[in-house]
Amino acid sequence: MLLGWFLLPRTHVKAPRTGMDWLGLVSLMPAVGALLLALSEASRLGFGSQVVLALLAASLVLFVFFVLRERRAPHPLVDLSLFRAGTFSRGIGTGLLSYLVLFGILFVTPLYLESAQSLPSTVAGLLLTVLRCPGPRGARCGHDG
User: Fold this and answer.
1) Dist CA 82 CA 92 (whole Å)
2) Residue range 80-100: average pLDDT?
3) Is 15 within the bounds of a domain?
């Protein structure tokens, strides 16, 4: 990399400036924050508590405002027209589902091993290292076509 710094020619290309949807950003950040706070407080207060319900309602209102704003923004943070393409929507849905399953397994399995099986946390962690084994081998099993 150090040789590349000295040997490769320097290019000075000016990228065109695009606008930033600040109002969309200001509505998205508290929406995500309120949702995360509601989910984390629900374990302590319960999903029926007024605080959690208020946070969920605020998050929903801010998300709706964000979507409405992004549909009209000249330079949206998320181009919602992409979701009209079926392949894009199915790909996003499949990726979301696989990550939900993955994180569900990584979250529930140690709890089960520690609570129901009465294993120490170190043993539960060591048992989860087996989940990493198929990854490097799985890439070699594919094909190019």
Assistant:
1) 11
2) 93
3) no
63: nearest Cα among 50, 49, 77, 74 = 77
φ and ψ at residue 143, rounded to 5 degrees: -130, 165
CA–CA dist 64, 60 (Å, integer): 6
Q: How far is residue 145's CA from residue 143's CA, in Å, rounded to a whole number?
A: 6
Cα 32 from Cα 26, distance rounded (Å): 11
Q: What Cα–Cα distance (Å) separates residue 86 from each residue in 31, 83, 91, 99, 123?
A: 27, 7, 8, 20, 44
**Shared domain check, 98 and 67:** no
pLDDT digits (tens, 9 = 90+) for 102-126: 888 888 998 899 999 999 999 988 9
Same domain, 30 and 69: yes
For 116-127, b/e burial (b = at least 16 CB within 10 A) is eeebeeeebeee
H or E segment at 85?
none
Query: Do residue 26 and residue 72 come from a single domain?
Result: yes
Domains identified in the chain, total number: 2
Give the domain extent around 64.
20-81
